[in-house]
Amino acid sequence: MSASGDVQLPIGVFDSGVGGLTVLNAIRQRLPNENLIYLGDTARVPYGTKSALSVTRYAEQAAKALIERNVKMLVIACNTASAVAIEPLQYLYPDIPVIGVIGPGADASCDATQSQHIGVIATEGTVNNQAYQNAILERLPSASVVAHPCSLFVALAEEGWHNGDLVKQIVEACLEPFRHVDHPMIDTLVLGCTHFPALKGVIGEVMGDAVSLVDSAEITARAVADRLQIDGLLNIGAVKGEVQFLVTDGPTRFARVAQHFFSDPIPASEIQLVDIQHFAH
Fold it and tell me: Any idea which positions bind substrate (predicted)?
């Protein structure tokens, strides 16, 4: 994959919907020369309430659709899919890098913590399958990890409710368990859902300066850059890369909600509707 022409190939990024645009945005900002293809499986969102078997099947179909477009890397910009599907995808596509959001987030939280008391907020599905808890404890067995679901943050992020008194009250209520004396005070909080970076400002305000926030989007973008560098696949040309958007349903709604997660407007006319359910292994 390190042949000279291959650096021009796009990076494929997929998610169950729009949340993964925070990852795409972070990659875009860190690697502006890279060509990118984003696939949002909006017909079957959310993944967090589905079985591991279903999510793995959906992830394999999304990956196959991107592989057919000749990508040089796959990025799973979905915590639920990263938890259950990264190993199957790495097995299916051994010739290209496959990166998820959980590993980089776990690495960063272990690097950031001083007290070894780490908190994780995510959707209910991600919390229940303990993907972050297990990944952190594999890297730092002495850590104390407390995870709480904050699924309401997804709706706030998608509606563009990112600040204000009401939003702060909701965030305070959702984060209240981390301020109880039932367990030691955390010094690091993992934003374990790709929607949550949109609320990073108010989450930081509520948790205070003593708590480091681990933004899985930024950390994943760094992991993508590092892996491309290692594999000799960085596109170092002077031309700004192109971005393509694919969805499996509702391009108009996707374009509307995308403005809360992606720094550039995405016209609905530029979003391609695709059917990926016929892809199967």
Answer: 15-16, 47-48, 79-80, 194-195
